[in-house]
From TrEMBL:
Lineage: Bacteria, Pseudomonadati, Pseudomonadota, Gammaproteobacteria, Lysobacterales
Main location: cytoplasm
Name listed for the protein in its UniProt record: 4-hydroxythreonine-4-phosphate dehydrogenase
Names of required cofactors: Zn(2+); Mg(2+); Co(2+)
Cofactor binding, per record: Binds 1 divalent metal cation per subunit. Can use ions such as Zn(2+), Mg(2+) or Co(2+).
Reactions listed under catalytic activity: 4-(phosphooxy)-L-threonine + NAD(+) = 3-amino-2-oxopropyl phosphate + CO2 + NADH
Role summary: Catalyzes the NAD(P)-dependent oxidation of 4-(phosphooxy)-L-threonine (HTP) into 2-amino-3-oxo-4-(phosphooxy)butyric acid which spontaneously decarboxylates to form 3-amino-2-oxopropyl phosphate (AHAP).
Binding site residues for a divalent metal cation: H168, H213, H268
NCBIfam families: pdxA
Annotated keywords: Cobalt, Cytoplasm, Magnesium, Metal-binding, NAD, NADP, Oxidoreductase, Pyridoxine biosynthesis, Zinc
Keyword Cytoplasm set for record: yes
InterPro entries, sorted: PdxA, PdxA_fam
Length: 338
């Protein structure tokens, strides 16, 4: 069986993404890697790390497995997406926002066209992309819009899998977004991905409440009684195994987590701090529901250490391994979870 072909996008060029990609290119993976980014930035990162940069010499659209693949025995391809202006590590320039987004969309289109079997992405600086005039709340949302499908963000490490009912939005908007329709589509996508991508035959998903102590029987909020609880009842009737709504403060106790294959948090900072605290360097960010696997690092652009060589590549390495494994299982079918 041929190795899966993965696109690797470094993300914000002034962040730690380029140096982490250079480190990834020193290794042999169970995948053919095609980097989509700015060659000069990668060369500068490699020079700072005193590491070789095994990219093929050709410019546009050289894809691993189609010509210029083997560099020093490593199956690597390269597609150049040059930045508009030079890069100063630690100081993102909004003028490079379009190159960042174009690289992401090139990878996504390549996956949809079947030229890649999955994509791995480094961290993107959301404010810089917007300052560059491009409306962007996250790569999850960008890829959902590009593919025209509903998706779910799930971060995972060896301790837990945490999916989110809502992603990048102001906290005050969260309660209004927790609707029966959102819960139904989110939980169906998570259930389907646990079965297909993680090989769990009968997944159990814990669902958190929104309010303290899951609303304390309505004393501390109505969402559990009016929306979350009834939604879970309807989905149980479809065969989903759902536990909750649970108080978020104790749902992650190790003894409880043992019984769950994933936890659905109602909002970003209800679930992700636990996941990142329990294993920042080992966690990855998956976009469930796309017609191809997409896996990202769990960390941000780390501008405070960009260019210093201190950035830990473990999350990127875990993302490549995870994406290669998912891609080898075969492409998700569009609409499978709906
Ligand atoms: N996958 C993504 O695209 C992604 C994920 C999270 C945050 N972000 C974005 O990144 C930007 C910065 O976010 P932030 O400052 O909240 O979080 P951050 O993860 O960039 O940094 C938080 C802390 O963790 C450290 N850190 C991060 N990655 C590290 C690594 N690989 N090795 C060692 N230390 C590391 C940083 O130095 C910093 O001290 C924001 O624009 C945010 O939206 C992007
Ligand atoms: N919510 C993610 C996290 O905290 O790790 C992150 O911001 C990146 O998400 P996208 O992959 O949607 O850019």
């Amino acid at each position: 069986m041929r190795r899966p072909r993965l696109a690797l996008v470094p993300g914000e060029p002034a962040g730690v993404g380029p140096e982490l990609c250079v480190r990834a290119l020193q290794r042999r993976w169970d995948a053919e890697i095609t980097v989509i980014g700015d060659r000069t930035v990668l060369q500068q990162a490699a020079a700072r790390l005193a590491l070789p940069l095994p990219l093929p010499p050709c410019g546009d659209d050289s894809v691993a497995g189609e010509g210029s693949a083997a560099v020093d025995g490593l199956p690597i391809g390269f597609i150049d997406r040059p930045n508009t202006v030079g890069v100063d590590p630690g100081s993102p320039n909004p003028r490079n926002a379009s190159a960042v987004v174009e690289a992401l969309l090139s990878a996504a289109q390549g996956c949809i066209d079947g030229r890649f079997d999955g994509m791995v992405t480094g961290p993107v600086h959301k404010a810089t992309i917007n300052a560059g005039g491009i409306a962007y709340t996250g790569t999850t949302e960008l890829l959902a819009g590009h593919a025209g499908c509903e998706v779910v963000m799930m971060l995972a490490n060896d301790v837990a899998r945490v999916a989110l009912a809502t992603t990048h939005l102001p906290l005050r908007e969260v309660p209004g977004r927790i609707t029966p329709a959102v819960l139904a589509r989110t939980l169906r996508i998570v259930d389907s991905a646990l079965r297909r991508d993680f090989g769990i035959a009968a997944p159990v998903i814990a669902v958190l409440g929104l309010n303290p102590h899951a609303g304390e029987d309505g004393l501390l909020g109505q969402e559990e009684l009016e929306t979350i609880g009834p939604s879970l009842e309807r989905l149980r009737a479809e065969g989903l195994q759902l536990v909750g709504p649970l108080p978020a403060d104790t749902a992650f106790l190790p003894r409880k987590l043992e019984g769950f294959d994933a936890v659905l948090a109602m909002y970003h900072d209800q679930g992700l701090p636990v996941l990142k605290y329990s294993g920042f360097e080992r966690a990855v960010n998956l976009t469930l529901g796309l017609p191809y696997p997409r896996v990202a690092v769990d960390h941000g652009t780390a501008l405070d250490i960009a260019g210093t060589g201190q950035a830990d590549p473990s999350s990127l390495f875990a993302a490549i391994e995870t994406c290669a494994r998912l891609a080898a299982r075969g492409r998700p079918r569009r609409g499978e979870a709906s």
